[in-house]
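CO-FOLDING WORKSHEET

Operator: S.A.
Ligand of interest: S-adenosylmethionine
Run index: 200
Mode: holo prediction, single chain
Checklist:
[x] sequence pasted
[x] SMILES validated
[ ] output reviewed
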Amino acid sequence: MGVREFQISDRNIVIHELDDLYDSTTGRVLTGSWLWNSAFVLAEWMATQCKLFDFDFRDKTVMELGAGAGLPGLMAALLGASHVVLTDVEPLLPGLLKNVNTNGLGDRVEVRELVWGSDDSDMGPLAHILKIISRKDSKIWAASEIRPWTIECLTEFTSQGFEIKESPVRYDEPHEEYDHAIFDSFSIFHLRQRDDERNF
Ligand SMILES: C[S@@+](CC[C@H](N)C(=O)[O-])C[C@H]1O[C@@H](n2cnc3c(N)ncnc32)[C@H](O)[C@@H]1O
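OUTPUT RECEIVED:
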C-alpha cells in the first residue's frame, strides 16, 4: 500500500491506498482499500477512448459507485466534469476524501456513503440502484476483467431491464505503471435501461 502516482493522457493523479481495512461486523477485508486494475483501465479508457463515443465530460455530473480509492471519478473531474460524487461504504470515505484533497479537487468532488446490498457478488441490488439514479440520457460504464462468472453478472443486469454493449479494451502505448497484458483481459461495458423498463 502507499502512494501511487499516475500520468494518464497528460493528467496527473495521486492515489493513496490504505492498509487493508476490515469490516468491523463481518471481519472481512474491505476490498476498496486498494486500487484494482479495473479502476486504472476505466480511467485510462475515459481519458483516451471515450471520445470515440462522442462523450465529453465537460459540465457533466458523474457518480462513481463502489469507488474504492476513486481513480475513475477523479479522472472525470480532471476531464472537466462539473460535479462528481464518489460513493462507497462508510469506512472507505475518509480515504476517498484524502484522495480528493490530495488532487486539489474539493471544489468539484464530494464523497458520500452509498450501499446497495450486503453481498458483493449479488448484482441485483446494484442493478436496482442504477435504475434509480440513472436517467434516459445517462451513460453507465463498468470496467471488468472477463472471468468465467462475468456473464452471470451481465445476465442479472439484462434481466433487470438493461441493454449492454461491450467495448474491448486495447492500448498501443506502453504505460510505466501497468503491464499491457492486463488490458487484453478487460472490457468496458456500456449499460442503458431499455425504454420499456424505465420507471423514473
Ligand atoms: C473490487 S473493489 C473495487 C474498488 C474500485 N472500484 C477499484 O476498481 O479500484 C469493489 C468496491 O465496491 C464496494 N462495494 C462492494 N459491495 C458494495 C455494496 N453493496 N455497496 C456499496 N459498495 C460496495 C467495495 O467497498 C469496494 O470499494
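REVIEW:
The CA atoms of residues 69 and 96 lie 6 Å apart.
The mean pLDDT is 90.
[x] output reviewed
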